[in-house]
Specification:
With 590 residues, the protein is an alpha+beta fold. It has 17 helices and 25 strands. A five-stranded mixed beta sheet has the order 20-19-21-13-22. Strands 1-10-9-8 form a four-stranded mixed beta sheet, with no helix packed on it.
Length: 590
């Protein structure tokens, strides 16, 4: 669960963990009658409007920050390896507790002002580590069991020192967080509004004129029209240049058309109005036939790096004396064998064959298959092959029984029935939910499948905690600790047994299972282990426990596929980075 939120190419993968709770973006569509692509620009699409232009406050996707901000480091979209970005190099102390970054010379902001160590220190100390700023970035920076935060200090204009309280293997990767301009934003931190809160909290909203916002990424915001489009133009002060000393990026403008219908995306791509479209299984055959005539290529990166799963609400807490989950259902959900029976009863191969048209693989782990820490079934990871007899056997072994109509009853005679929710409008998830309903009816369970608006779904999962079972997904990447927010007992995405967020009414009687505590402990241990062999063993154990205990029941890993116009040269496609992770070096050829 890695997208909550795109901040830089690397940051995109961590907080994109939370956006696993978000509808996937198809970089691909445009509404009828929109402007055709031009030689100096590329046109993509997004499913909804951006919610903020303030990177630190972002909690949504799509957002503009992957194009407009850079961090000290980035990740290679092909290999996942760490590469220099604003920092040209770094040194790690022998005790692994100190990193000194050397910034590139002559860095500048989009307004031409110098970008120095002062901006790095400001971004971390005054924004990301500032308790007055409600940013999710802080969770990524917390270290070890005590969740301590790093200290950051300036050495000189080009050198910044980061110090951590204990060795922390993922820490270097976490410095891909976008750097913010101190010369523009510092006053908004120190100045308070009428309620005593920093003005920063209301700075750079979606109504802010783009010319007032300062960036350091490959592109800067040029214009925004609500429900219509977002336009970006090349940042003339972006640091990258090619070997011939030519300024990058080469593409002058990027246009995002805002559209909520993926069928419209397909139509507009086929008519030439878009430069790229995400290829879903139901579009694949049609698009494949038209590759040559349409002058585009379908790139297939193999299994996507994210996850798709169902989860039961295991929270046994009460709010104002009222159980979050009906007690009899909570008893069902909290039995491991019940969850295992559900896993055996879902025909995942049928999902691949029918819903994904064969374009996917079975999924069995929270860690992406591209990660060196992935523990495979061949190495011993438990899997749940479709087996109705095994499902029924498990249910009967824990006191469930069948009536004459072959309906499943619990030991007290209650009909086993629950509600499954997902985000409406996502046709793939709706089809998956419908199949799950059919599959579980074969073991006597009645599933009330209810696709709901995404905002309502998120409110249930993270706020009211009023739900029984949901179908969603998290994004992925190479670093397991990017998903620590899912497995920490305090984590904002520990949704299957969620603690109340700050400001929400507290719970009484909430319990955490031993396996749940052990996974949380192992994630802390894994992040602090610097020996790669030992790290792999630790994360293998977390995957063993998650598959045995099934807090999340993993389903299908679709192939990552995108169609891109042949006029765009230099694509290096992968499931990790997609088609445009290296947009700075892409060129247009007419």
């Amino acid at each position: 669960m890695k997208n909550l939120y795109l901040v830089s190419k690397n940051w995109r993968r961590w907080l994109v963990v939370m956006l696993s709770l978000v509808v996937a973006i198809a970089l691909s569509s445009c509404s009828p009658g929109e402007t055709k692509t031009a030689p100096s620009q590329v046109v993509f699409s997004v499913l909804s409007d951006p919610k903020t232009f303030n990177l630190a406050l972002n909690q949504e996707s799509p957002n503009i920050f992957g194009l407009t901000y850079s961090g000290l480091i980035t990740e290679n979209g092909l290999t996942g390896e760490i590469e220099p970005e604003l920092a040209e190099s770094w040194e790690i102390s022998p005790d692994k507790k100190r990193i000194v970054f050397t910034l590139r010379p002559d860095l500048k902001w989009s307004d031409g002002e110098p970008l120095t160590a002062d901006d790095v220190v400001f971004s971390y100390n005054e924004v990301y580590l500032n308790e007055e700023i409600p940013t999710d970035v802080r969770d990524v920076l917390r270290i070890g069991k005590n969740r301590a935060l790093p200290t950051i200090k300036k050495i000189d204009a080009r050198h910044v020192e980061f110090t951590v309280t204990e060795p922390f293997a993922p820490f270097l990767r976490s410095t891909g967080i976008g750097i913010l301009p101190a010369h523009v934003l510092r006053e908004t931190i120190t100045t308070k509004d009428q309620t005593g809160k920093p003005k920063f909290l209301t700075t750079w909203g979606i109504n802010t004129p783009p010319k007032e916002i300062v960036f350091n990424g490959a592109y800067q915001l040029e214009s925004y029209a609500t429900s219509e489009r977002v336009a970006f133009r090349r940042n003339p002060y972006y640091w990258r240049k090619d070997k011939q000393d030519q300024q990058q990026p080469y593409i002058e403008k990027v246009i995002w058309q805002i559209v909520e219908n993926t069928d419209t995306s397909l139509l507009q791509f086929r008519s030439g109005g878009l430069d790229s479209v995400g290829v879903s299984p139901d579009y694949f055959s049609l698009l494949k036939k038209g590759e040559k005539r349409g002058k585009y290529t379908i790139y297939n990166g193999g299994p996507a790096s994210g996850t798709t799963f169902i989860a039961f609400n295991l929270n046994q807490g009460r709010r104002n004396g009222i159980p979050l989950v009906e007690p009899m259902k909570s008893k069902w959900f909290n039995q491991v064998k019940f969850r295992q029976a559900i896993a055996y009863a879902i025909d995942r191969q049928r999902m691949i064959n029918n819903i994904y048209r064969g374009l996917g693989e079975l999924q069995n782990s929270p860690i992406s298959v591209q990660s060196p820490y992935y523990f495979s079934p061949e190495a011993g990871l438990k899997v749940y092959e479709y087996n109705l007899d095994k499902a029924k056997e498990l249910l009967l072994s824990i006191g469930f029984k069948y009536n004459e109509q072959q309906e499943l009853l619990d030991s007290e005679g209650n009909r086993v029935r629950f509600t499954l929710i997902t985000n409406s409008g996502n046709k793939i998830r709706e089809a998956m939910g419908s199949q799950i309903k059919q599959d579980l009816s074969k073991i006597g369970i009645q599933v009330d499948f209810n696709p709901i608006a995404f905002g309502v779904l998120v409110d249930k999962i993270s706020n009211t905690l009023d739900w029984e079972c949901y179908l969603l997904g998290f994004t992925g990447g190479v670093e397991p600790n990017d998903g620590a927010n899912v497995w920490s007992l305090e984590g904002g995405l520990h949704s299957f047994n969620q603690k109340p967020q700050k400001g929400q009414p507290q719970l009484t009687g909430q319990k955490f299972a031993d396996w749940e505590k052990e996974i949380a402990r192992l994630y802390v241990q894994g992040a602090g282990e610097l020996d790669e062999t030992k790290r792999k063993a630790i994360y293998a154990e977390t995957q063993r426990i998650t598959q045995e205990s099934l807090p999340l029941i993993y389903l299908v890993n679709p192939f990552s596929m995108t169609a891109v116009r042949d006029r765009i040269q230099g694509i290096k496609y992968s499931a990790l980075g997609g088609a445009f992770w290296n947009i700075h070096e892409l060129k247009l050829v007419e």
